Amino acid sequence: MVKRPDELKKMQAAGRLLASVFGVLDRTALAGMSTMAINDLVEDYIIRRLKARPASKGQYGYAFALNCSRNHVVCHGAPSERERLEDGDIVNLDITLEKHGYIADSSKTYLIGKVAPAAKRLVRVTYEAMWHGIHCVRPGAHLGDIGHAIQGHAKQHGYAVVRAYCGHGIGRAMHEAPDVLHVGRRGTGLRLKEGMVFTIEPMLNEGSARVRLAKDRWTVLTSDGKLSAQFEHTVAVTKTGFSVLTLRPEEAEMVMGGE
To answer: What is the DSSP letter of 54?
Structure first.
């Protein structure tokens, strides 16, 4: 659970590489692309350019390099040749990358073309909620503090937090202890220690927090067909606060006070 300094260095390296993948996606015109084409772009970049491994591929029998969760898909959306991103869509692209035996995990919800104000608001508040949770991370804090901050921000803006899926410890394995819930009470749960590394990845729904599995028994959908958004970062507990291992360059101002 607690990583040694040499392990943290390898995780930082993996995190920087993963951040660069999102840089490629940011520069790509996603509208009109099939989600499979996006998957192939990401897989090729990770393998050929970064000399790394797309860690999602082969995990639990999954065949792809990323998850594409569009509109009312909460998480675990599988890429498809038939599914194309259209004007007005929101889509979460969730990517994991392994380098030198250590894994980083991050996701971002993209706005495709001209998106309705209500959808933009959901995406913005979800991003803010993730950062409210991240800023609770420090030695001596509790996991419940993270969930409380996320839940409070979501509730303030009228959104429901998905409870069926959560963040997780990460390192040599994609999913390690502890589970990181996105709801909670202050001062409860595991006490954080320097060297812990885990993901914070809230999913916020426009309507009910309830979800259902699609017929493929993999893809997770909102129960009421309303929109869902998600953001995710891999975070380490430092001596005085936190370090976001998958931080993207444009997010530098978000970590002020973190370390």
So the answer is: E
3-state secondary structure (DSSP) of residue 171: coil
Residue 256: the pLDDT is: 75
For 124-141, the three-class secondary structure string (H helix, E strand, C coil) is HHHHHHHHHHHCCCCCCC
- State mean pLDDT over 67-73: 98
C-alpha to C-alpha distance for 144 and 130, rounded to whole angstroms: 14
Q: Which of 92, 2, 95, 89 is nearest to 44 (CA)?
A: 95
Q: Which residue shows structure tokens 């990583």?
A: 3
Average pLDDT in the chain: 97
Contact (Cβ atoms closer than 8 angstroms) between residue 204 and residue 220: no
User: How far is residue 32's CA from residue 111's CA, in Å, rounded to a whole number?
Assistant: 13
- Contact by Cβ (8 Å): 152, 129: no
Its pTM surpasses 0.90:
yes
